[in-house]
Amino acid sequence: MRGKLAIQSFAVMPFDENCYVVSDDTGEGVVIDPGGMAPEILAYIREAGIAVKAVLNTHGHCDHIGADDAIRDVTGAPLYIHAEDAPMLTDMKKNLAAFMGFRALARPAERLLSEGDKIAFGQSELEVVHTPGHTTGGVCFVGEGVAFTGDTLFAGSIGRSDFPGGSEADLIGNIKKKLLALPDDTKVYAGHGPSSEIGWERKCNPYL
Ligand SMILES: [Zn+2]
Ligand SMILES: [Zn+2]
Predict the structure, then answer these.
(1) Cα 49 to ligand 1 centre (Å)
(2) So what's the pLDDT on residue 102?
(3) What pLDDT is recorded for position 2?
């Protein structure tokens, strides 16, 4: 039987982007979308005694990747991102930083993800669910009872599809096919804003 996941979130300004540190009873964990706040995230990791096995990006936009390198430098963990979004890490036009008066770059990822890949830490596992529509390489990380949905699915809303590579039809199609298929009580940890549950989104999300 697997232990419950400990999930600590950090709201990173100026876009109120959610970074999540996810760990289990073994003390191993992953950091999802460290857009900034490296000192606070690293302090939590240190105090909680978490051995970080990987830094994960749901996609390559600037507000999700800003502290990738700082977390990697201290923890030694490798960075994972979907292959389609990998070029955004090293290009401030592609990751939109150049258009937002923002500076965000990261070194190339150690591993490129694709649909169905499994990311293991401790006794836990997250599966890569490819959900293009917000970006072409956008993914969700799905574990037992949890889904980290990046800018694909928000509580009561969905991600923008008007950025380069976006497609509203793809976004909504992928959410319906791949996320709404999850059990009702699956907790949704979104890339911005509050958390939700799949059952509530299936019933009440006006975009779906
Ligand atoms: Zn985004
Ligand atoms: Zn975002």
Answers:
(1) 30
(2) 85
(3) 56
CA of 118 to the centre of ligand 2 (A): 23
Rounded to the nearest angstrom, the distance between the alpha carbon of 159 and the centre of ligand 2 is 8
- Residue 129 sits at φ, ψ, to 5 deg, of -115, 115
CA of 53 from ligand 2 middle (Å) equals: 23
Strand spans (E) along the chain: 6-12, 17-23, 28-32, 51-56, 79-82, 111-113, 118-121, 124-130, 139-143, 146-150, 153-154, 157-158, 187-190, 196-197
List residues, by chain if needed, whose CB lies under 5 Å from ion ligand 2: 63, 151, 191
Distance 11 CA to ligand 1 centre (A): 15
Task: Find the mean pLDDT for residues 89-116.
Answer: 96
* Per-residue pLDDT, 3: 62
65 C-alpha to ligand 2 centroid (Å) = 10
pTM higher than 0.85: yes
Q: How confident is the model at residue 4 (pLDDT cuts 50, 70, 90)?
A: confident
97 secondary structure, DSSP code: G
Q: What is the pLDDT of residue 1?
A: 41
Superfamily of domain 6-204: Ribonuclease Z/Hydroxyacylglutathione hydrolase-like (3.60.15.10)
